[in-house]
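Hi Y.,

Following your request, here is the sequence exactly as I used it, all 637 residues.
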Amino acid sequence: MITIHNLSIQFNGENLFDDVSFTIGDKDRIGLVGKNGAGKSTLLKILCGLQNADSGNIVISKHQTVGYLPQEMIPSSTTTVLQEAMKAFDEIKHLNLQLDSINKELSERKDYDSKDYERLLLNQEEINERLAIIDVNNAEPTARKILLGLGFRNEDFDRNMTEFSSGWQMRVELAKILLQKPNLILLDEPTNHLDIESITWLESFLQQYYGAVVLVSHDRCFLDNITKRTIEITAGKIYDYKTNYSDYQILHEERIRSQQSQMVNQQRQIAEVEKFIERFRYKATKAKQVQSKIKMLDKMERIEIDEVDSSSIHFLFPAAPHSGRIVVDIRNLSKSYGEKKVLNNINLILERGQKVAFIGRNGEGKSTLSKVIVGEIKDYTGQCNLGYDVKIGYFAQNQAALLDGEKTVFETIDDIATGDVRQKIRSILGSFLFDEEAIEKKVKVLSGGEKTRLALAKLLLSEVNLLVLDEPTNHLDLVSKDILKNALLKYDGAFILVSHDRDFLQGLTTTLYEFKDHNIKEYHDDIYDFLEKKKLQNLEQLNLRQRTEKKEDKPISQNKLDFQANKEKEKELRKKRNRLKTIEQEIENTEKDIALMEENLNSTQDPNFFTNYQNKKELVENLMQEWEVLSMELEKQ
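Below is the corresponding structure, written out as tokens. Let me know if you'd prefer a different format.
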């Protein structure tokens, strides 16, 4: 368990966190939510030790380990993919050195009943447990398995890391974290670098993971499938919900409504008290009551409605001008990069108003075919013909990076606006959350989300009847993604959408094209129906493989199975006994703090005193509940 106690940190003069306290259990699955800039990424950095808080502390047990994947990083490895993944096991060398030192000391000591000797035995046991968790004997097979799950192929293992894009290199960094098997995994927007197949594999892995997981994500489906607890960060405070994201949204709205109701009632009560004070302020017979009412108002804790982020982009695409019935006609199209074949003999017809999604693993040709259609790639064989009067609006996967960093936000739009649209530039930018100050910023200082919004705004400047959008939701928050989805639902032209976001795709397209093995396959399914079919296909393949393996495997003796079961049982008992001792110590320390605070109850001037006092009382209550559960479990053994 990890305990965060009275954590405070300021940024640009504002409280990101103000005396925040919570715990992370051994097997928790937590989603961090809050508006952009609320402090989600900062909290992850504090938890992994990359950033310090202004005050408060984080208590992490001696042998607890933490793995952290940031949103962006610049990998610099020049080894092969497999060699880089195997670096995850460097910890083993350190653990073995520690173990050798402990074993040597134990062999030389005779004070078997001393606390120091007991401490050495405990350290020895914890290191052996950690080595068993890492499973060093199966290091390379496990590394290969995880790399395959994250989308690599067997032939990729011996390729140099420098041959891969930054997104694929981030997958290797993620693989290293999963291989290290830390007690706590921290993930900041991990799905930005993954395709649908890799995301579903990662979901399955994290659902079964032995440790705790805390993640930040704008993928609603990913959050719902993994998390069972949601921590909302708002205005320096946190709210802890024991539920996934979708259920949290309902509870969040109920909380805001409740606060609004409580505030109205309190304001009514205050008005009545102030009316009484004003009426009898100068009457000597009522002086004592007036003073009592004034003191009551001074001490009253005012109810405030938590900050609600109501800002969101709002726009609709212009009406699509008329085109011919056939919008795109692709016949026998092939494309290679050197000796590497990407697309082979592709045939596809897109009709007026048709809504299409390109899906599949990264590197299978989705972006390549998109670039062929918009005319960015011309060196291919076969035919790609646009229909009569087709006008294309294109959002590239790296669209944000293609913006001129030296131009201002206003200049970026002004340079391509024509006619009456020039009169609406500020209005258009305002609908994408660029206020008067932001309009004058240079593009190079914008965040990833702001650059994506600016690139989307450019699409509104001309009337098109075919939109080609390649990963438009990367860096967009959940609310902005919903607005974009609604705009596409109302758009009357045709569009091709490349995306790995299942929640975004759901109900949006009429046709799916799966890219696999240099070709495409057409499905007239919703994304979830398609994924269900794929899961069944994969399960059939898995069952076939398992039947083959069973024929080859030697039977395991019952004695060995019993031994392994007893070993696991003893391990769990030891963990529970150790946790029980830790809880008892925490209760004792916190009760001492409470007793000291109660002595100063009437003399304190600290405005946060009562909040801190209540937090400690709640902490003791929670610890007592956990202590009772563990005690009962141990009594049954």
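The chain has 21 helices and 18 strands.

Thanks again,
Q.
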